[in-house]
Amino acid sequence: MDIKKLQTLVFDALEDVKGQDIQIFDTTEITSLFDRVCVVSGTSNRQTKALAASVRDKVKESGGDIVGMEGEATGEWVLVDLGDMVVHIMQPAIRAYYRLEELWGGKEVKMGAAKRTASKMTAGPLDEEKPKRSRSKAAPVEVTPDMMAIQTTVEDEKPKRKPRVSKVAAELAGEKPARKPRATSATPKIPSGGRVKVAATKTATASSKEAAAKKATTRRKTAE
Question: Residue 55: which of 83, 80, 27 has the closest Cα?
Fold first, then answer.
């Protein structure tokens, strides 16, 4: 029997009886006596015996050979010799004490990934024939009069902004935009930091002339 088929049969047989922490190691580079070593845990004597019987029956049904079985009397450590593969079914305390993983664990075979790949290759054509499911579309929301009234109220409460009128639009409408007044030549320019001369009024000029005449008369009289 092919070694890959044999290790798959053993793995399935142990899984059927709920074997714990199943590990399979490739020992082709370590020894020439066998190609695979399997280590699995059973929680009780009854389960270890059931695991061994499951492996024996599965291999026999597929036409494999059972070289021998040891440890069935006690059930603490049951060994099933399949020729190219040796299966160690141990209770957790015995497994932790002997640590067979350190002895044969040079190269572990990942059975979970191998089985998933094989199942995908087998189920690929069947999956392609299955019709694709259409995504369900969401049902349309019915708009009620109450919802329309709420939306209208919310829109009325929003502050309305004044529309901006551009220069081009104002000229097209006949309204010229207000321009800033330009300074003309009649407008006096006041230099920064200078003094501004204010013209005297007519009353002030007449009073100043009368005062000057009085002063001149008084000087004449004084001189005489």
Answer: 80
How many structural domains are present in the chain?
1
Q: 192 lies in a domain?
A: no
* Domain assignment of residue 95, given as a range: 3-119
Q: Give the separation between CA 46 and CA 42, rounded to whole angstroms.
A: 8
Amino acid at 26: D
Query: Residue 77 is encoded by which pair of tokens?
Result: 């450590």
Q: Could you read off the pLDDT of 73-131 as tens digits, one per residue?
A: 999 999 999 999 999 999 999 999 999 988 887 678 887 654 544 444 444 444 444 44
Give the tokens for residue 20.
């714990």
pTM above 0.90, yes or no: no
pLDDT in tens, 26-49: 999 888 999 999 999 999 999 999
- Domain of residue 25, CATH code: 3.30.460.10
Structure tokens belonging to residue 96:
């932790």
- For residue 101, being part of any structural domain is answered with yes
- Please check whether residue 182 lies inside any domain of the structure: no
Tokens of 86: 């040796």
